[in-house]
Amino acid sequence: MIKTECNLEVRYYETDLMGIVHHSNYIRYFEYGRIKMLDEIGLPISKIEGNGIMLPVVSTFCTYKTPSRMGDTLKIVSSMESMPMAKMKIKTQILKESTVNPLTPDEEIGTVVAEGEVVIGFIKSDTRRPCRIPEFAAQIMEKYF
Fold first, then answer.
1. What pLDDT is recorded for position 127?
2. Mapped to the 3 state alphabet, what secondary structure does 64-123 carry?
């Protein structure tokens, strides 16, 4: 299993007129966590793309639990529970790490803000045809499963 964590501070432009993070930004947070996860295991996107492989999003799913606001620090926990073959399934949980907003009580710290998963495929850059996980990526990931 691969499991990584990173933090992100909510910025003003990510919020809506109600002062909460707009729902579309959570998919961006999922991407931020997934890119950090791949970097952390030694498989940055630049290396994957440099080897002629692209990673299109096949599907996304997100459940929203409680709002977050500008200034909140979110913990993004990304995990992959099985070795990818033709697709990577990355689960993500976003928790409230800290808040500077007086509207958000301290007891909300550590609560789940949103959770879901993203499925990523592998395609060859030149043909745009699906392929299995490339050997160089499989060798890096194998040690986690």
1. 97
2. ECCCCECCCEEEEEEEECCCCCCEEEEEEEEEEEECCCCCCCHHHCCCEEEEEEEEEECE
Catalytic residue among 16, 39, 72, 106: 16
Q: If you count DSSP H runs as helices and E runs as strands, how many of each does the chain have, helices first?
A: 3, 7
For residues 145 and 138, what is the distance between their CA atoms, to the nearest angstrom? 11
| pLDDT score for 103 | 63
39 is catalytic: no
Domains of the chain: 2-142 (3.10.129.10)
Angle at 123 between CA 119 and CA 129, to 5 degrees: 125
Residues of the chain with pLDDT under 50: none
**How far is Cα 49 from Cα 119, in angstroms, rounded to an integer?**
18
